[in-house]
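To: structure subgroup
Subject: Chain for Friday's discussion

All,

I'm putting the inputs and outputs inline so they're searchable in the archive.
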Amino acid sequence: MWFAAAFIPMVASQLLRLGQQQPLAWMLCDYGGRLAALGLLAALPQARVVAFRRESLKAPLWLALACIAGLVAFFPLLNDPLGDWLEKLLPHTALGHYPTLHGALKLIDLSFGLLLVAYHEEVLFRRCALPIIGEDGGWRTDVKSAVLFAVYHWWTGAPNMVEAGLFGLLAMPAYRRLGTLWPLVAAHYLADLSAFV
């Protein structure tokens, strides 16, 4: 129940953002939904134990760094050739768009905003999802997590949903192998930063 409850502020935030024309209002809706979901996870004892537990790296540091580099290097392949092809195949499926930001708002979003996105999504779709969807350690876990991550990006359109699903398909096995979330948060942040810069 707590896992499903965490989606309520997130989906509400997505719905509110669809009608926002002003960048600041869009950012406040986005950040508010993510912070509310994290706050809900922190407030519920059963969720807090899972969402904010301490984790140790189960693999060598070089492997964690290689996972970060690999995921970041893979991301442009999703955005450029695959994303362009999918947009031609499935045009005009996006229900909303990221706002064009300038000045201080852009700096805030590229630093705090993208870090919040990376942390929030990795906590929810990797760490919290793992015990919910099953820790069998096989490809089914990876696929379920990837599908859930893709569906969360429903408002961005079919091409981005496919891209998010593919990223998730790589992120969950990396998380299970490494045993800690920080490399995935770093990779997610750097991949998003490369896309937005």
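Points worth raising on Friday:
The CA atoms of residues 169 and 194 lie 20 Å apart.
The radius of gyration is 16 Å.

D.
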